[in-house]
C-alpha cells in the first residue's frame, strides 16, 4: 500500500480485485499435485500463440532468459555483434553480453525506439543480429528494421519484454523477428506472481532448441541432447497467467485511457509526450514524458501526492558494466538527452479519471501554463 494520492503502482490493489480467481488458480494447481511442466504450462503457451499470432510460444523463467535462450537458439555467441539501443532496461544489453556476444549500440529516435538509420551505420562483418526494444510497449520501426536485416542477412531478436498487447500495423509485438522475448515480471502488463517470461517464434528449429534448452536439454528423462539450463515457467504462474491473459486487454485499455487524459490536459511546450501514430497501438507498460526541469517537477508532484519515476536516468552505455565496451558520454545524444529529461507519470489501471486529471493539472501548474 502507498501513501500517495496518485500512486505509480500498487500490486496489492491487483490482488484485491482478483483475490478469488487467484486463490482458485492456486487451489486448482496444488490440488492436482503436479508442479513441473504440466498441461497448464502447455495451455498457457497455446493461449499466447492464439493471442499473439506467433507460431510457437516457449514459456520460461523470465524475459531475460527468453532473450538469452532465443539468441542462443539462433546460433549467436562468442564474438558476434548484436545491435541494440542504449535506452532500455539493462537486461537487453546484459543478455547479449551473457551469451558471449558483443553489444553494439545504435541511438534512438525521439519516440525512444531504435533509429534504423543509426543501425545501418553500426553494421560490420561481425554483425549477426539486431535487438530492437519495444520500449514502454511501442513497437520499433519494424518495416525498416526487417529491411535492413534482410539486406545484410542478419537476424532479429526482439526485446518484446513490454509489448504484450502492443501492435504495429496490426501485427503483435514479438512476431516480427526471428524470435521475440516477452517478460511477465510483476511490473509488466501481463504479470506473473513473480518472475516469468516466454519466447515467441515462427521458426520450428529455434522453437525446438529453445524448448529443450530451458529444460536441461532433455529430450526425455534418460536422453540429454545437449546441456541446457533450468528455465521452466512455474505451473502456478502458468495458471495465473492464463487467467490474467483474459484480463490483459482491459488492463491496457485503462492505461491507454489514462494516457489520453494526460495528452488532453497537459499543455505543450515544456513536456513532450510521444504521439501515437495511426499504425501503432502502444500498450503503455510505462507512460513516459520528456520534461523540462525534470527533477524539480518530480519533487513538486511528490509534495502534492503524485508518485512518478525516472525510467531510466542513465543510458545503458554509461553504466559501469558497459565500461569495457568503450563508449563515452556524447556518443548517443538522443538517448542521453532523454535520460536527463525522462519522467514516467502514474497511469496504472486502478487510477480514476479524477486522479489522472489531478496529476495532469499539477504538471501545468508547475510550469505556470
Ligand atoms: C522487464 C524487461 C526485461 C527483463 O525481463 P525479466 O522478465 O524481468 O527478466 C528486458 N527488457 C526490457 C525492455 C524489460 O522491460
TrEMBL record:
<dbReference type="InterPro" id="IPR000653">
    <property type="entry name" value="DegT/StrS_aminotransferase"/>
</dbReference>
<dbReference type="GO" id="GO:0008483">
    <property type="term" value="F:transaminase activity"/>
</dbReference>
<protein>
    <recommendedName>
        <fullName>Transcriptional regulator</fullName>
    </recommendedName>
</protein>
<comment type="similarity">
    <text>Belongs to the DegT/DnrJ/EryC1 family.</text>
</comment>
<feature type="modified residue" description="N6-(pyridoxal phosphate)lysine">
    <location>
        <position position="188"/>
    </location>
</feature>
<keyword id="KW-0663">Pyridoxal phosphate</keyword>
<dbReference type="InterPro" id="IPR015424">
    <property type="entry name" value="PyrdxlP-dep_Trfase"/>
</dbReference>
<dbReference type="InterPro" id="IPR015422">
    <property type="entry name" value="PyrdxlP-dep_Trfase_small"/>
</dbReference>
<dbReference type="Pfam" id="PF01041">
    <property type="entry name" value="DegT_DnrJ_EryC1"/>
</dbReference>
<dbReference type="GO" id="GO:0030170">
    <property type="term" value="F:pyridoxal phosphate binding"/>
</dbReference>
<dbReference type="GO" id="GO:0000271">
    <property type="term" value="P:polysaccharide biosynthetic process"/>
</dbReference>
<feature type="active site" description="Proton acceptor">
    <location>
        <position position="188"/>
    </location>
</feature>
<dbReference type="InterPro" id="IPR015421">
    <property type="entry name" value="PyrdxlP-dep_Trfase_major"/>
</dbReference>
Amino acid at each position: 500500500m502507498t501513501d500517495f494520492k496518485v500512486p505509480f503502482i500498487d500490486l496489492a490493489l491487483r490482488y484485491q480485485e482478483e483475490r478469488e480467481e487467484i486463490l482458485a488458480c492456486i487451489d486448482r494447481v496444488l490440488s492436482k499435485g503436479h508442479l513441473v511442466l504440466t498441461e497448464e504450462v502447455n495451455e498457457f503457451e497455446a493461449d499466447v500463440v492464439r493471442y499473439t499470432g506467433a507460431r510457437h510460444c516457449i514459456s520460461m523463467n523470465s524475459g531475460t532468459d527468453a532473450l538469452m535462450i532465443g539468441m542462443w537458439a539462433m546460433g549467436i555467441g562468442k564474438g558476434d555483434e548484436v545491435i541494440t539501443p542504449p535506452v532500455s532496461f539493462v537486461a537487453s544489453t546484459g543478455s547479449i553480453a551473457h551469451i558471449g556476444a558483443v553489444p553494439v549500440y545504435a541511438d534512438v529516435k525521439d519516440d525512444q525506439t531504435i533509429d534504423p538509420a543509426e543501425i545501418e551505420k553500426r553494421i560490420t562483418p561481425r554483425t549477426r543480429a539486431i535487438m530492437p526494444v519495444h520500449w514502454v510497449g511501442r513497437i520499433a520501426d519494424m518495416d525498416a528494421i526487417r529491411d535492413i536485416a534482410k539486406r545484410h542477412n542478419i537476424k532479429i531478436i526482439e526485446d518484446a519484454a513490454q509489448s504484450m498487447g502492443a501492435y504495429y500495423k496490426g501485427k503483435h509485438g514479438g512476431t516480427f523477428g526471428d524470435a521475440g522475448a516477452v517478460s511477465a515480471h510483476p511490473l509488466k502488463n501481463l504479470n506473473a506472481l513473480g518472475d516469468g517470461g516466454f519466447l515467441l517464434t515462427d521458426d520450428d528449429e529455434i522453437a525446438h532448441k529453445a524448448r529443450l534448452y530451458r529444460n536441461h536439454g532433455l529430450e526425455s528423462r534418460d536422453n540429454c541432447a545437449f546441456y541446457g539450463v533450468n528455465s521452466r515457467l512455474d505451473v502456478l504462474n502458468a495458471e495465473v497467467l492464463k487467467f490474467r491473459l483474459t484480463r490483459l486487454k482491459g488492463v491496457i485499455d485503462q492505461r491507454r485511457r489514462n494516457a489520453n487524459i494526460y495528452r488532453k490536459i497537459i499543455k505543450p511546450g515544456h513536456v513532450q509526450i510521444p504521439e501515437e501514430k495511426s499504425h501503432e497501438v502502444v500498450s503503455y507498460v510505462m507512460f513516459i514524458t520528456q520534461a523540462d526541469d525534470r527533477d524539480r517537477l518530480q519533487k513538486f508532484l511528490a509534495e502534492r501526492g503524485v508518485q512518478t519515476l525516472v525510467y531510466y536516468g542513465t543510458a545503458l552505455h554509461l553504466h559501469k558494466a558497459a565500461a569495457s565496451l568503450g563508449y563515452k558520454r556524447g556518443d548517443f545524444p538522443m538517448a542521453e538527452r532523454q535520460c536527463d529529461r525522462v519522467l514516467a507519470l502514474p497511469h496504472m489501471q486502478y487510477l480514476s479519471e479524477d486522479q489522472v486529471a489531478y496529476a495532469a493539472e499539477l504538471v501545468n501548474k508547475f510550469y505556470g501554463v
